[in-house]
Automatic annotation (TrEMBL), chain A:
<dbReference type="InterPro" id="IPR003511">
    <property type="entry name" value="HORMA_dom"/>
</dbReference>
<comment type="similarity">
    <text>Belongs to the MAD2 family.</text>
</comment>
<comment type="function">
    <text>Required for the execution of the mitotic checkpoint which monitors the process of kinetochore-spindle attachment and delays the onset of anaphase when this process is not complete. It inhibits the activity of the anaphase promoting complex by sequestering CDC20 until all chromosomes are aligned at the metaphase plate.</text>
</comment>
<keyword id="KW-0131">Cell cycle</keyword>
<keyword id="KW-0498">Mitosis</keyword>
<feature type="domain" description="HORMA">
    <location>
        <begin position="14"/>
        <end position="198"/>
    </location>
</feature>
<keyword id="KW-0132">Cell division</keyword>
<dbReference type="GO" id="GO:0000776">
    <property type="term" value="C:kinetochore"/>
</dbReference>
<dbReference type="GO" id="GO:0005654">
    <property type="term" value="C:nucleoplasm"/>
</dbReference>
TrEMBL record, chain B:
<dbReference type="GO" id="GO:0005635">
    <property type="term" value="C:nuclear envelope"/>
</dbReference>
<dbReference type="GO" id="GO:0000776">
    <property type="term" value="C:kinetochore"/>
</dbReference>
<keyword id="KW-0539">Nucleus</keyword>
<keyword id="KW-0175">Coiled coil</keyword>
<feature type="coiled-coil region">
    <location>
        <begin position="391"/>
        <end position="439"/>
    </location>
</feature>
<dbReference type="InterPro" id="IPR008672">
    <property type="entry name" value="Mad1"/>
</dbReference>
<dbReference type="GO" id="GO:0051301">
    <property type="term" value="P:cell division"/>
</dbReference>
<protein>
    <recommendedName>
        <fullName>Mitotic spindle checkpoint protein MAD1</fullName>
    </recommendedName>
</protein>
<dbReference type="GO" id="GO:0051315">
    <property type="term" value="P:attachment of mitotic spindle microtubules to kinetochore"/>
</dbReference>
Length: 211, 730
């Protein structure tokens, strides 16, 4: 785990995997709150990354996200995880409306040799903070989700990964045709680099049709 | 002139015959014939022409002996002279041979000289050519340097332009970022104002709700009053109906009695036996009739009242139905109010945005403006990225050109140094050439002198020999110089050849580097386009099935949500119906039969709701049993596989963060106090200290396995093995 030195902190593979999986948990909660997938009153306020973050109080969603985080942490330590995608779909029609794409680049040398890297914890937290702020401000340009929505999580892994019993292999990557894409900031623990990108259904065609 | 009278002889010295040696060149003047000479007095007499004939007569007076002696001497002298002549001839022949040899040597030396002159001329020519070539190369290198400097100056100007562009782009990006920040700040303000307004509206909504609740409660109270009134009126109606029925029956009885009495009266009118009794009867009957008529009137009144009551009942039913419809539409009203509030919030937000955003006059413009701004930002970001990429390319190219420039500068410096060296060498060669030419001139003059001397002297072989010897010695002295010159020429040739090779190799290297730079630039463009394509593919979500597979977690949240929502809705409906049932049952207990109409409607609904409740409760029970079965199976399997009974417990920390606590008890534990406690929070598991873990043995193991090696499974496995060993041994 991370231990403090003078200016930079030592980051191990396990610590980096924990940081990334924790980030994904809080990001998923933030997305569910900001996109109003679940009602506001089902979220509780906590302090994390120097910001007031919202965590769901719904037991089902909580257990889902915690199980997800545990599995992601395991895959990250093995260096097998390539991407995590949070998909928001319409409940009635099942149409994919938004895809929150978190692509992960792993330093294979650390996975193979077990070496550690050095980076300041504060800097990592600053980078994650910037991403969280961007997620919160994404409501300004993302189209309104007027209908009831549900979410799903997809994990892009290496082909040699054993499928856990709570997961299943899916041939449908839940893509959006002709999406609009917005690239957000990224953060780097020197072992895992996470790039965030949101792609959403092009709202202009609908508005043109309406006009 | 031979004198007749010899001079008195001098005593000949007792010596051997004089050895007549071959005379050295031009040195035997004293070996000539001893010519009698007149005494010194004669010489002055000779000098005086008047004394000459006297002397001649004296001379004629010499004796024959003298003549013989003179003849002998003369002959001796002649022989000697002949010998000397022969000697001299032989010497001359030798000298002539020597002269010939010297001449030949001179010729050879002359040839050598001419050859050396030719070689010198050729070397000079070659030097000149080399000099020209060097000058050309120096000029070329100067030109190349100038071109390189010009190109570097151009690149520098380009770099400055690009830097200016980059600064401009950065400034535009900074201004765009500032604008974005301002917009974000404005959005923040807007969101804060929206939140404030939301809070205000929520408060207003709460007040409205309270007011609506009050109004609803009032309405309910009024309704209840109306119900009570209706119930009371129903009761009255029934009473009146009963009374009416009684009265009707009585009326019919009275009518029947009346008819009988009338019959009796008619019959009595004929008889007229007891008029008084009949009058009394009639009076009684009339009174009864009046009573009955009054009762009939009352009954009619009651009937009208009953009809009114029925009308009121119908009105009550209508109002009840209206109330039910209003109650059904109340939640919709809430929803509509909520939507109205949302729309009002949105409108106010849009209005604020319209006021804040320049160039926007109406709501439709906002989207266009925001999309235009977004596009602008995206385009600016793209441009910035392109400019950055281009700038980096230019920086790389500039670095390369600077490196090339440095290389060429060093090469130019080296070439200059070489040129300087070559020039110095050329100068030295020129100096040497001048020296050699001077020596050649000296030699020429010497040769000409020698020639002239040869021509002048003719027989002076010794002087020619001396000159030839001098020439030979000077030529011998000049030979090392000539060898040195030849060596320098050769070295110069080698240096020039080496330089030419170096220059060729440098040219080749330059060309190859230029080709490499172009190929790298092409590859850079290709890679950039590939990166763009890949990023778009990543954004789209494409993946390669050879390297990647897509996994999806089994998500029961949607289904669970639906079920939960239906359950919640049904539960709320159930509660409402229960309350209604309670109210109705209370009313029933109060009224009894008055609520028959309501009972029939409510009972049907109650039955339906009870059925739904029963099915939902059964479903819930089924879910609970299935979950309990599965979880117990899982727990038993975990216990048997890993040797620990695991108890899971959800807790909350003081800061509000939920934490899961796991309590593990080994199946080989000696007592119930041997429990391990772990806290699990968002992927991190930490051991919690308790009385068991604070014992020396366990704390040691915790330090080693958990704290140092950071492995909880190793700790639990070690503990299991130790407990097993302890158990088996005991």
């Amino acid at each position: 785990m991370a231990s403090k030195t003078a200016a930079k902190d030592i980051i191990t593979l396990r610590g980096s995997a924990a940081i990334v999986s924790e980030f994904f948990g809080y990001a998923a909660n933030s997305i569910l709150y900001n996109r109003a997938v679940y009602p506001e009153e089902s979220f509780a306020r906590v302090k994390k990354y120097g910001l007031p973050m919202l965590l769901t109080k719904d037991e089902g969603v909580k257990s889902f996200i915690s199980n997800l985080n545990a599995q992601l942490s395991e895959w990250l330590e093995a260096g097998k995880l390539q991407r995590v995608v949070l998909v928001i779909m319409s409940m009635n029609t099942g149409e994919v409306l938004e895809r929150w794409n978190f692509s992960i680049e792993t330093d294979n040398e650390v996975v193979e040799k077990g070496v550690s890297r050095e980076k300041s914890d504060k800097e990592i937290m600053r980078e994650i903070q910037a991403i969280m702020r961007q997620i919160a401000s994404s409501i300004t340009y993302l189209p309104c989700l007027d209908e009831q929505c549900v979410f799903d999580v997809l994990a892009y892994t290496d082909t040699d990964v054993a499928v856990p019993f709570t997961w299943m292999e899916s041939s449908d990557a839940k893509l959006i045709a002709n999406p609009q894409m917005v690239k957000l900031h990224s953060f780097d623990t020197k072992i895992h680099k996470v790039n965030t990108l949101v792609s959403y259904k092009n709202d202009e065609e609908e508005s043109d049709d309406e006009e | 002139m031979m004198l007749r009278t010899p001079v008195p002889k001098r005593a000949r010295p007792i010596e051997p015959a004089p050895i007549i040696e071959s005379p050295p060149t031009g040195s035997d003047h004293h070996r000539q014939l001893a010519i009698y000479e007149d005494p010194p007095s004669a010489d002055p007499a000779r000098r005086e022409p008047s004394h000459e004939p006297l002397q001649q007569s004296e001379h004629m007076l010499c004796t024959y002996q003298c003549r013989q002696m003179v003849k002998a001497d003369f002959l001796d002298a002649l022989s000697n002279a002949e010998k000397q002549v022969q000697d001299y001839q032989s010497q001359l022949a030798e000298l002539s041979d020597n002269f010939r040899k010297a001449d030949e040597e001179r010729k050879t030396f002359r040839e050598k000289l001419s050859y050396a002159e030719q070689e010198l001329a050729a070397a000079k020519g070659r030097e000149q050519a080399l000099h020209d070539q060097l000058l050309k190369e120096v000029n070329d290198s100067h030109e190349r340097l100038k071109k390189e400097l010009e190109s570097s100056a151009k690149l520098q100007t380009k770099l400055e332009n690009e830097q200016n562009l980059r600064k401009k782009a950065e400034s535009t990006a900074a201004s765009a970022e500032d604008k974005a920040r301002e917009l974000e700040a404005k959005l923040g303000h807007i969101s804060q104002s929206i939140e404030k307004e939301k809070k205000q509206l929520n408060n207003e909504l709460v007040h409205l709700k309270r007011d609506s609740k009050f109004s609803i409660s009032k309405i309910t109270v009024d309704l209840e009053k109306m119900e009570f009134r209706a119930q009371s009126s129903e009761k009255e109606v029934e009473l009146l109906r009963k009374q009416q029925e009684d009265l009707q029956s009585k009326f019919s009885q009275c009518l029947h009695q009346k008819s009988e009495l009338e019959k009796k009266l008619t019959s009595l009118s004929f008889e007229d036996d007891s008029p008084k009794e009949s009058d009394i009867l009639v009076k009684h009957l009339q009174e009864e009739l009046r009573n009955y008529e009054s009762e009939v009137r009352e009954a009619r009144k009651l009937k009208s009242a009953h009809e009114n009551i029925e009308l009121i009942k119908e009105k009550l039913l209508e109002e009840k139905s209206r109330r039910e419809r209003a109650e059904l539409q109340l939640p919709k009203l809430h929803e509509y109010e909520f939507k109205i509030n949302e729309l009002e919030d949105e409108l106010s937000a849009w209005k604020l945005m319209i006021q804040d955003i320049p160039g926007v006059s109406c709501r439709d413009d906002i989207r266009l403006r925001i999309s235009a701004l977004q596009k602008e930002v995206i385009d600016n970001l793209k441009k910035l990225g392109d400019v950055n990429a281009h700038l980096k390319q230019m920086e790389v190219i500039l670095d390369k050109t600077q490196l090339d420039k440095q290389k060429t500068e060093t090469e130019a410096v080296l070439a200059k140094e070489k040129a300087d060296r070559l020039e110095a060498e050329v100068k030295r060669m020129n100096v040497m050439l001048s020296a050699v030419s001077e020596e050649r001139n000296v030699l020429k003059t010497a040769i000409e002198d020698f020639k002239s001397k040869n021509e002048q002297a003719g027989g002076n072989a010794s002087s020619s020999i001396m000159q030839i010897q001098e020439l030979g010695s000077s030529i011998l002295e000049r030979e090392p110089y000539i060898k040195e010159l030849e060596g320098d020429l050769f070295a110069q040739k080698e240096i020039n050849a080496h330089q030419r090779d170096e220059i060729k190799s440098l040219h080749d290297r330059l060309n190859s580097e230029a080709r490499r730079v172009k190929s790298l630039e092409r590859e850079n463009d290709r890679l950039r386009s590939e990166i763009f394509l890949l990023e778009s593919k990543i954004g789209h979500g494409d993946f390669s099935a050879a390297n990647t597979k897509v996994l999806r977690m089994v998500n029961t949240l949607a289904v669970g949500n639906d079920a939960k929502q239906t359950i919640e809705a049904l539960q709320s409906e159930l509660q409402r119906t229960k309350e209604k049932l309670q109210a109705l049952e209370e009313y029933k207990s109060q009224s009894g039969n008055s609520g028959k109409m309501v009972d029939s409607y409510m009972s049907g609904k109650v039955a339906q709701l009870k059925e739904q409740i029963a099915t939902l409760e059964k479903r819930e029970e089924r879910y609970k049993t299935v979950f309990a079965d599965r979880i117990s199976v899982f727990r038993r399997a975990c216990c048997e596989l890993f040797g620990y009974k695991i108890v899971m417990d959800e807790r909350q920390r003081p800061n509000g963060i939920p934490v899961t606590r796991f309590t593990l008890q080994s199946i080989y534990a000696m007592n119930d106090d041997e429990k391990l406690e772990f806290e699990y929070e968002s992927g991190n598991t930490n051991i919690v200290e308790n009385s068991y873990t604070s014992t020396s043995e366990i704390s040691q193991q915790v330090d080693i396995f958990v704290r140092k090696m950071n492995s909880i499974p190793a700790f639990t496995a070690n503990l299991t093995v130790e407990s097993f060993n302890r158990r088996t041994l005991s």
